[in-house]
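User: I'm putting together a teaching handout on how multi-component assemblies are represented. Below are the sequence lines for each component of a complex, exactly as they appear in our records. Could you produce the 3D structure of the whole assembly as structure tokens, so the students can see both representations side by side? Please keep the chain order the same as the input.
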Amino acid sequence: MASQDHSNDRSQDRSRAGPIAMAPVAALLVVGFLVPLVLVAWLSLMPERTFGLDAGLTGANYVTAVRDGYVVPLGWSLAFAAATTAICLLVSWPMAKVLARRGSAFALTVTILVALPIFVSESVRLFGTSLFLMPRGGILAGSVNALFGIQIGSILYTKTATLVGLVYVYLPFALFPMILGLAQVPRDQVDAARDLGASGWQVLREVELPNAMPGLLIGGLLVFVLAFGANTEANVLGGQSVAVITKSIDQRFSYAQDWPLGSALTILVAAITAAVVFPVLARIDLDRLLRR
Amino acid sequence: MSAGDPTREGETLRRAFTALVVVLLYLPIVSVVLASLANTRYMIFPHRVWTIDAYREAIGQYTTADLHATSLKIALLVAILAVALAVPGALAFARFRWRGRRLYQRALLLPIFFPQPVLGLALLVALSAAGIVPDWRTAVFAHLVWVVPIATLVISIRLYGFDPAQEEAAYDLGATRLQAFREVTLPAIAPGIVSGALFAFLLSWSNLPLSMYTTGADTTLPEWLYSRMATNYSPQVPAIAVLSVGASALAVAAFLLARGLWRRAASSPATRATS
Amino acid sequence: MSDRSGPGVAPATSASAARTADGGEPALSLVGVTRVFGGSRAVDAVDLEIREGEFFTIVGPSGSGKSTLLRMLAGLDRPSAGDILLRGRRVNDVPANARPTAMVFQSLALFDHMSVGDNIAFALKMRGVARLERMERARALLDVVHLPAAYIDKPVTQCSGGERQRVALARALASDPEILFFDEPLSAIDNRLRKLLQVEIKELHRRTGKTFVYITHALEEAMVMSDRVALMRAGRIVQVAPPLEIYDRPTSRFVAEFMGEVNVWRAVREAGAVTLPELGLAFPSETIPAPEGFLVARPEKLALLREGGAAPATIAGTIVDEFVLGSRKQIHLRPDGAGESARERPTVFGEIPADAAAPGPGARVRLGLAFADCRFVTE
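Assistant: Of course. Below is the structure of the complete assembly, with chains in the same order as your input.
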């Protein structure tokens, strides 16, 4: 063999197998992810309300984006994303501690129960949420009225309802990576820390959190990004009470037929997403997280 | 012993909390079922009349079958294609050691860590630039962009648990590369492949944000439900929603059954066909 | 490396010097075999001949390159330089699946989704042997490795640790290979079972007459089983010899220390004498073949001197520790003059009977040492 192996790999042939095996996936990601984003970026530099890709380049859409007040829906989206992430992480932590335990029948049952709704369409689940929250004839209000004879108010079509929907839909995305992360906390390290006199709080801070951090980061990141780009929750549960950025983008593309401005807003969202995702992903050791 | 365990009480509390959250997670789904049992155009709960009329009407309708057929053909194709791409993808992710692997691992995650409505719109722009009229086939492609990375991760998790020395042992015992893959690697990761296919199917079946922009004139179940929620509400809408959930439950049941049969077959090698 | 050490002090006709085999072609010859990973040489210019039918063990600490060497012998890796000859034929580029060799892996690498029988018969399946015939062969092999015939249909995942070891052994034997390689297969099992399997592997070697090449980091395992042992360090072979010779006549400090607790003292040649500066000792009218080096002495060579007893050299000191080894015990002696002000003086290891009358910690004793019981090494 003339080829000098520079990697630390033991079997030389493997270094060629990798690129071949990833090629189909890579092709899909280039054609289905990279190219569309590049096209959108290009389109965002076209003049207002054009559809072609060959007009002169301009930064006007970005100026419009800021001047026409799209900063407000962007701010709302970010605020919803931050709040959803915080709530999901807080709710997930005690659950993950229960569910990360191996060999517990309770943990297994609950894990399956939590996982199943992921596969029920968002539209069905949000539909159900709105049926539950509806004023007067809704499931909750109707039941309370029938049982106690009192008419309660409703949070449907408010920002609170939007937040409830976001937490409801994205909770599993925080929970499952967190379970993976907590499974990385060696049981004997917790015992050792206790044996050495650590309190429950100290065990959390010194042992559990650092070990579970990759799972926490992945989960938090996932929820943040998905909630940031979500529009169905705001549409179904928020009604007219709030406009999120993806709703604005959708309107630019559909009703307003202003693709360049829609594209500029899309690029803003993508850029913010990348700014959040890249630093975290760069820091995580996926091999360690996924290996059991 | 248990009395001395300082975490005991905390554990009970955590379990109670967990159970409560699970109940809350199912309230909306239960609500849809309850709503489907009415016969009034506007929902006034509790219903004066409880009936399954809505299901009878829904099942008789052409729309119901058509929606299910569209969603089904998309999800089936997505499942098959996703696995075909994700198996080699997972080998590159978790098994092979090569330069650029770390970069690939992270690039693969990007579509998962990306807002789906935004991805859907970007794909719409790309399709229009390429002069392709969107229909259910473009939706298959859109779903793949998001589902293949997930299926790759699912299969990778299984691959991480596979001892690569098994493949070397196969070579050492005279197998060719292809034989080693077929006889050793593939059967070892088969459960991961089946899970990957199931994930792909269910995620495609229930997807709304990507379908919304990429199906063109065709309509999937989630899309239809989404549009009918706001306008033209009738008890048939929740009824069809329940039917769609039932269909995905069927897929899960089929999967569990297949896995059970597989395990039984694996545990009695004498009954296996000779190869 | 082994050639570079000086000649032994004891009258030695080192068998390791006569490396040419007892007639006939060697089963395996290695000529300058080197494997480079990145910039580091995991295996560095190894020359070696393994005789037909020999039980040959390569011992070394972890990271010494022994596994890499074995993988090249099995065809799972290729040398960066040098040649591997299998019965005189160059096999550098012959892949593992085309070599008449089989390996028992460290992790065993059993096929978890298969039954015991399918595992054992795998090599035969790859050769296109019909199922009935290969199952018959598998049944015969179950007997060879002392597993009940009923195990043939048992899922391999349901076997105990020891049973899995036996399945791995039978699987490697199935294709009737000329050479069997073992990559530390017994490193992860408990002591009692390990001893039992060591005996069985040794017996299997005797019965089959095949060439066995065995890798371990456990010296004791190498001593029990092998015809010859090669010691590896940092990618190089340091010494090749039968086990007893390695023990008695190490050619370097490294070998001596790898073989258990041992005294190593700096030795200097002076006019008509050899002095040990660390102990303030001298052997008059003795000489060593180099101006400076080390004297190596096993603990059992240092005898307890009774009142008035004499020896060519005596070391007086206080016992600081003792470790009972059955009927004898090892003592750690702090030699006199090893006080705070004194220059560093090494603890001396001796071995004395472990009877009731024997001195214990705190006792002052004298140990006697003969120059002939020491081994001189230059490095």
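A couple of points students might notice: Chain A touches chain B through 98 residues (CB under 8 Å). Residues 14-43 of chain A form the longest helix (30 residues).
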